[in-house]
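Re: Re: ligand-bound prediction request (bumping)

Still looking for help on this. To restate: I need the protein modeled with NAP bound, output as structure tokens. Inputs repeated here so nobody has to scroll up.
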Amino acid sequence: MFKAVLMGQTEDRQPVMTIENLEDSFLSADGEVIVRVRYAGLNYKDGLCLNGQGGLIREFPRIPGVEFAGEVLKSEDDRYAVGDQVIATGSRIGEIWHGGYAEKASVKGDWLVPLPKGMNMRQSMIFGTAGITAVFGLQSLERHGLTPDKGEVLVTGAAGGVGSFAIALLAALGYSVAAVTGRIKESGDYLKSLGAETLVPRYELAEAIKRPLESERWAGCIDNVGGEMLARILGQLKYGCSAAAIGNAGGHQMPASVIPFLLRGINLLGIDSVNQPYDSRVQAWSRLVDDFPLDKLDSIATEITLENLETAGKDILNGKIQGRYVVCL
Ligand SMILES: NC(=O)c1ccc[n+]([C@@H]2O[C@H](COP(=O)([O-])OP(=O)(O)OC[C@H]3O[C@@H](n4cnc5c(N)ncnc54)[C@H](OP(=O)(O)O)[C@@H]3O)[C@@H](O)[C@H]2O)c1
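Reply:
Sorry for the wait, this slipped through. Here it is.
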């Protein structure tokens, strides 16, 4: 038996979240590696799943939780032995497959990576998908020429998970970071402690574009917000610079102009963490070990349990969570 969060639906399709003790046979028989989950994360996507939004879970009942870390209990995959410590992210775990809000999970070997040396399981789930996604965003900007001498890099959705990691990572690598937040009063000191030099109030960038080109201001952008804010930022990028589009916390419609692409040669780079190949995930985890200031991790993390997930799932959708929640099992 193992304890798990279970998402079900009422007859009129309303989401129902319960905490159950389940038989091991509840887990998918197609899984190749069974893991004793020790930590899971909480992402915006988990908030959607826990509240029955976004159409991400289509079959019920389903154990949600898009990422977890734990120890291998049983393995049919030669790469993993009993006792190995592993991390699972992406591959639509917790959506079309039972996920990490449970003491046990059964997944495909390809969806796992070994816990990197120099990081423990708790730290790995403080980072979670948000941490590796910040790395994917940064690396994409670097491939398009971003270096610290080019100028200020803007991070939107700054006090959220991806935003927090992006700021601390950029600052540790010597970049000047400007952070856009809707919570300057509550989170301003936190963002400065992560390494943000400039705080930009959300309202300054939230308005739709009035002119397709504004003054050239940013050498790059890691954008977690999308919508009108991203459209606006495109017109403020310096000549030849890029924005990495990661999220849509502010909306998915982007009322943008093509003029900044045509007259300033800017780039809009799409970032996906869900279907990243194995080698790319391993490399991103190892870059976090090498480049992220691990002493900042505890200030980003808040520990919760399965029992707190109902409230936490609502809070993340309402933009009330600062940094990352890590679920201890
Ligand atoms: N592409 C991928 O593979 C990938 C991977 C992970 C996450 N994501 C997406 O990236 C985004 C950020 O993820 P996360 O885990 O960091 O989420 P999060 O912790 O919920 O952070 C999102 C942040 O966005 C800001 N925000 C919220 N509502 C907003 C609004 N209406 N307008 C403007 N800003 C708003 C808030 O920051 P402030 O309070 O500081 O303003 C909030 O903390 C989400 O959309 C998520 O789905 C994508």
